[in-house]
Every structure is written in C-alpha cells, then in structure tokens.
C-alpha cells in the first residue's frame, strides 16, 4: 500500500473502496452532485486520481454507490416508523407520510444535481435501491391495520400506498424533468406513533383523502 493510500485509511477499518464511497457521499451532501469530478473525490479522499479505477469500473459506478449511501444516510436520521395497532390509524399513517416526504425532500438536491447524468441514475436504479423499505413497510402497515379491523375489510390498501408514494416522489421527479416542484417540507424526523406532527395542511389533506376517500357519503 502506498503512503498516500495508507494515510487515507488511518481513520478506521474501512476498505479503500468504502472510503471512496463515503468521501463521494459526503461531497454530495456538502457541495451537491452537479459537477462532482473524479479529481475532486480523489483529492478529498487523499489518493491519486487513478486509484478510483482500481475499485470502480468508472465514475458512474462510484457516484451510483455514493448516491445509495446518501439515501441511506438521510433514512438513518428519520427515526422509527409506527407499528400496526399502535396509536390511531390516522396518526400512524401521518407518520408514514411525514417520513416519506422528509426522505424525498432530503434526497431531492442530490437527485436534481444528477439530472444531467442519466448513466449514474441508471446505475443507481440497477442495484439495490434504498428507500424501498419505507414503501414496503407502508403497504405492510396498511394491510396489517386492515387485518386488525381498524380499516374497512375491503380497503384498497395497494392503491392507497401507490398514491402516497406518488405524492412523495413528485418533488424528485419534477426536479429530474426540470419542472419546478412544489416547495418540499424540510427534512425532519417522523413523529412517534400517536404524536402530533408538523403543522402541514397538505399532509393532513392527503391522510384524510386516503382514510375517508373522495366520494359523497
């Protein structure tokens, strides 16, 4: 191992590949992803430019790995999701929606910065995609609440989950399509089950639409 590579790894037991991913992820968080170069990543990581190509096929692979790490970092600060049967269904659903909105608001700047690099986004989508756990847990939560009798036995929970996921995806998709999105809420931990969340009329309206529908009663 060269002295420069050794210096880059003095801070812990990470492999050099892990160190490079962590460095690129930090630069994405601090400076954004637009214009992020191999040279900038290498200098920040304390290695020669060519070292990156010993661990990644190309720049796009490294940035896709860093993007996954960024999404996981945002997820890690959002707190726990509610369990079925805890508190009210309305409070639980509100917590899931708040979590999803905060997650997508947190990752929006990075995705927007990569809008001009479709190869990176394709690499990201081609591997394990963080954020799916929230989507899968949302659907599982709605199914469990239906099984517990706290939702109607014929509740169309799959459609409800798709609607919620779509609302949370909207800011990211609008940014990638260069369409000005609605102002997203600032990233914040999801409220605990049964606790009041932020005063957000849009979030409350979405929860009410999911729980009570749109038809006349």
UniProtKB/TrEMBL annotation:
- Residue ranges flagged as DNA-binding region: 37-56
Keyword terms of this UniProt record: DNA-binding, Transcription, Transcription regulation
Question: Which residue ranges does the record annotate as region Disordered?
Answer: 176-201
Molecular-function GO terms, alphabetical: DNA-binding transcription factor activity; transcription cis-regulatory region binding
Q: What region holds the HTH tetR-type domain?
A: 14-74
Superkingdom assignment: Bacteria
Bias type Pro residues, positions:
179-192
Pfam families named among the record's database cross-references? TetR_N
Coiled-coil parts of chain: none
PANTHER family registered for this protein in UniProt:
HTH-TYPE TRANSCRIPTIONAL REGULATOR RUTR, MYCOFACTOCIN BIOSYNTHESIS TRANSCRIPTIONAL REGULATOR MFTR-RELATED
Q: What is this protein called?
A: TetR/AcrR family transcriptional regulator
Q: What organism does the record attribute this protein to?
A: Microbispora triticiradicis
